[in-house]
Amino acid sequence: MTGSVQQKNGTYYAILQYKNKQQQKKYKWIPTGLEIKGNKLKAKAMIPEFIETYQHLEYKEADDSKILFADAIKQWLVRKKNRLEGDKLARSTYESQTIYVNKHIIPYFEKLNLYIDDVTPKHILDYYDYKFNGGRCDKKSGGLNVQSIKKHSMVFKQVFTDALIAEQITRNPASAVPLPKQEQTMKAVFLTGEEANRLLQAFTGNQLQAMVYVTLYYGLRRSEALGLKWSAVNFEEGKITIDHTVVKNLTVEYKDKTKTKTSMGDFPLLEDVKEVLLRVKAEQTENRKTFGNTYYESDYVFVWKNGNLYKPDYITRTFMRVLAKHRLPPMRFHDLRHSTASILHDKGWSLKDIQDWLRHADIETTGNIYTHISNQRKQASAKDLNKTFVI
Questions:
Q1: How many other CB atoms are found less than 10 A from the CB of residue 206?
Q2: Cβ contacts of 344 within 8 Å, gap of 6 or more
Q3: pLDDT tens digits, the chain, 391 residues: what are they?
Q4: 245 contacts 258 by C-beta, under 8 angstroms
Q5: How far apart are CA 100 and CA 106, in angstroms?
Q6: What distance in Å separates the CA atoms of residue 344 and residue 277, rounded to the nearest whole number?
Q7: Which end of the chain, N or C, is less packed with Cβ atoms under 10 Å?
Q8: Across the chain, which distance is largest between two alpha carbons, in Å?
Q9: Do the Cβ atoms of 365 and 356 come closer than 8 Å?
């Protein structure tokens, strides 16, 4: 099997040449998704991966007008990888989508052996139901939650959109397929100031206490807390900047950007936080002396005693383990961010002020959290009111 590139409809296509069972020459056109200008070498570089993907066509009967849905997804991943190399796609997004495709979607649809133009909304709905009701790829019981399946649905929609552009199909079967409905097994937690202080006490003696403390004050995401650098803390001017994150999918990625543009921002360095960070800085100075030349140097604020960087999943596991040890209600690390909103709400901050502090891209997100907080407080107040009067 050999390959070349050709121009079509303003983009490059990879052309694979092979022989079928009758030794007849066959050609397969595969869209690369690359615009013509300046991308010929990139298009050519994609050919080896396409050849590996379609090697099975060699000496076999094949209808070149059709492509198996599982193969179409593999093509789509190759194009995604190429866009990543061109800085058009965040690595974390590509890696998470690779997990969805290789561990879930391809194993399911390879068994069905469906061509892409044979896939119907019912096939996709059946996939959602299967994953929701127990179709995990690990040994754990139960199915995937709705948020995970929603991410799978984004893959379906993008694959079929590419297929529409390549004229492989005439409609997108994933566009209107509903997601399963699910009641959350772990609802968002909104701590009060008193409850947050009890949580902080549970972390006494634990190296993550300072991270939890700073997270509660600024409503940080886990990626932002891990990504906080000393260069972003200006003790003289009393300012702290959120502009770097640490995330993990297949690999840990350190990047100089946040979840959204609005997530970046400068904040006043609160005196309480300044005191804690100065203490952390002093501890790191002592740790450098203790570990000597084995100390791992970096600019990150929250690190192990030997300077090594924390992994994101370690933070999640340790956080929940400490809560369980002290018999505190289970919650996610991200619920610290919700709790910041809750505490600001209790202090009388306006919706707009909370939005600005939490760096939400739109006020609707803040409003939804605000509603959850109000409902939770109303339920607590109702219980307190119960049995006040007697007849």
A1: 15
A2: 353, 354, 357
A3: 888 998 888 888 888 888 766 677 888 888 888 888 888 988 898 888 888 777 766 655 445 457 899 999 998 888 888 777 655 456 777 888 888 899 999 999 999 989 999 999 999 999 999 998 887 766 666 788 888 899 999 999 999 998 888 888 889 999 989 998 865 555 778 888 999 999 999 999 999 999 999 999 999 999 999 999 999 999 999 999 988 888 755 555 555 555 544 446 788 999 999 999 999 999 999 999 999 999 999 999 999 999 999 988 899 999 999 999 999 989 999 999 989 988 888 888 888 888 888 887 666 666 666 666 666 655 665 566 566 666 6
A4: yes
A5: 9
A6: 22
A7: C
A8: 95
A9: no
Strand partners, 240: 233, 267
pTM equals 0.56
Contacts 24+ apart (CB under 8 A), 21-26: 21/59, 21/60, 21/61, 23/59, 26/57, 26/62, 26/64
Rounded to 5°, the CA angle 95-107-69 comes to 85
Give the distance, in angstroms, between the CA of residue 27 and the centroid of all CA atoms in the same chain: 38
Which residues are 255's β-sheet partners? 245
Domain boundaries, the chain: 2-165, 193-382
- Class of CATH domain 193-382: mainly alpha
CA dist 93 → 47, 100, 231 (Å): 23, 11, 27
Q: What is the DSSP string of 195-259?
A: HHHHHHHHTTT-TTHHHHHHHHHHT--HHHHHT-BGGGEETTTTEEEE--EEEESSSEEEES--S
